[in-house]
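Hi support team,

I've been running sequence recovery on a batch of backbones for a student project. Most finish fine, but this one hangs at about 90% for roughly twenty minutes before it completes. I'm not sure whether the input is malformed or the queue is just slow. I've pasted the structure tokens below so you can try to reproduce it. Let me know if you need the job ID as well.

Thanks,
M.K.
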């Protein structure tokens, strides 16, 4: 009688195991599809959903992503695209934190919003969507507002945190909590045709530098609005930063701010200071 590893190896073709066989193995051996995915990756067999990844992400690296835990704070314009892309690339555990429900004004840009889901918790809809996109992903929906007082608990176990918030004060609190946990924070912000991205490493104070004189708490997006395409672009840049940090590849935007102008199709970069003493103030 085959054990699960032998059964998987008997079904793989060209180093791939298709979805039907992944489901079949889970049913035959009474385990989750996530368990089957882990066995495949540990044995150098790639679930076929990831076959277009393998020219740039090795099977070993795909296993690294699968065993990773990423927390996304905010599930609106940026957060919806971030969660979807993380799940599709193969992050194994995603915690998504947001206290809000979908409203009609979300329909122009928020990936998980639909007329049928107006009034539903954003994170619940996100969890439902991800089970359809990639059932091997564990998604933990948290219907809570992130605060400094609950941040350590909400982010416990995460290896990277993604900032998809729209409040400067909360972003600065998030930066402080991530620094306390020694976890990298990938920050993104959008307004109209414009957006920016940076990655704050645990030893840095990039967000304090960026928002040294924050002005209005909600930022300029209240004036410029947000279309459908800007969050998609900035969220994709954030996800690429997450992958680089987890795989220790490339050059993350540490102490650098990438600014994107989609109206004139221009990209610029500025340096951010390294520590709190250079901003003229300490952490919030």
């Amino acid at each position: 009688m085959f054990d699960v590893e032998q059964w998987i190896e008997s079904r793989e073709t060209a180093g791939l195991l298709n979805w039907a066989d992944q489901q079949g193995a889970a049913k035959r051996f009474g385990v989750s599809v996530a368990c089957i995915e882990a066995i495949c990756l540990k044995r150098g067999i790639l679930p076929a959903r990831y076959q277009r990844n393998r020219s740039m992400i090795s099977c070993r690296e795909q296993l690294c992503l699968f065993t990773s835990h990423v927390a996304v704070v905010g599930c609106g314009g940026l957060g919806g695209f971030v969660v979807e892309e993380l799940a599709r690339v193969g992050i194994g555990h995603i915690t998504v934190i947001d206290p809000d429900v979908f409203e009609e004004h979300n329909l122009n840009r928020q990936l998980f919003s639909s007329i049928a889901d107006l009034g539903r918790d954003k994170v619940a809809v996100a969890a439902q969507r991800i089970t359809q996109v990639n059932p091997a992903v564990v998604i933990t929906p948290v219907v809570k507002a992130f605060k400094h007082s609950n941040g350590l608990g909400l982010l416990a176990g995460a290896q990277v945190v993604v900032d998809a918030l729209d409040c400067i004060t909360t972003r600065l609190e998030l930066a402080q909590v991530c620094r306390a946990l020694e976890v990298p924070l990938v920050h993104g912000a959008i307004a109209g045709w414009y957006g920016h991205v940076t990655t704050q490493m645990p030893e840095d104070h990039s967000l304090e530098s960026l928002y040294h004189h924050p002005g209005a708490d909600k930022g300029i997006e209240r004036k410029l609005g947000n279309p459908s395409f800007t969050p998609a672009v900035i969220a994709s840049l954030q996800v690429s930063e997450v992958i680089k940090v987890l795989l220790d590849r490339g050059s993350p935007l540490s102490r650098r701010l990438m600014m994107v102008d989609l109206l004139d199709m221009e990209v610029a970069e500025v340096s951010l200071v390294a520590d709190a003493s250079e901003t003229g103030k300490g952490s919030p």
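--
Follow-up from support: It reproduced on our side and the slowdown came from queue contention, not your input. The longest strand covers residues 185-191. No action needed from you.
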